[in-house]
Amino acid sequence: MRFLVYDRLLGFGDDYWIEDDRGNKVFLVDGKAMRLRDTWELKDARGQVLIDIHQKMFALRDTMVIERAGEPLATLRRKRLSLLRDHYRVTLADGTGLDISGRVLDREFAIEYDGELLAVVSRRWLTVRDTYGLDVVRDDADPALLIALTVCVIHLAEKERERERETGKGDG
């Protein structure tokens, strides 16, 4: 199952549709402006909220929290620093862990469970500029959760890059 995301910086109040590989609008990422923390809702095509995404307020490291129907579903945080790859750790509500690694700012990364590939995010498959694909590899994977995780890691990577620019660390 492949989803297409028209890439743009995620900011407060940003809304955008995610389409399936046939061009049907499947999910809406609804950015919530005027909140104290970065917040989004992932909605289906009918407008039903499937997942809430928000930044954890008082965490030592940037942490994103994903909830379904008001219940915690997953927590995501940066795992370790690397010059070549970004690494994030996802802890699901049941204690299960997922790993996300790759070049997030380039939109080239993978989501894995226990070494098994769940989804791949890539621009390589697409010819449309400023678009990336989310290819869900396993049929039993939760596409809404994988899209929410993708929103989170891109947001955290963009925030990190912005901090580096502000402090002058990103001026190679």
TrEMBL record:
Assigned protein family: Belongs to the LOR family.
Natural source organism: Streptomyces griseoviridis
Protein's recorded name: Uncharacterized protein YxjI
Pfam families documented for this protein: LOR (PF04525)
InterPro entries per UniProt: LOR (IPR007612), LOR_sf (IPR038595), Tubby-like_C (IPR025659)
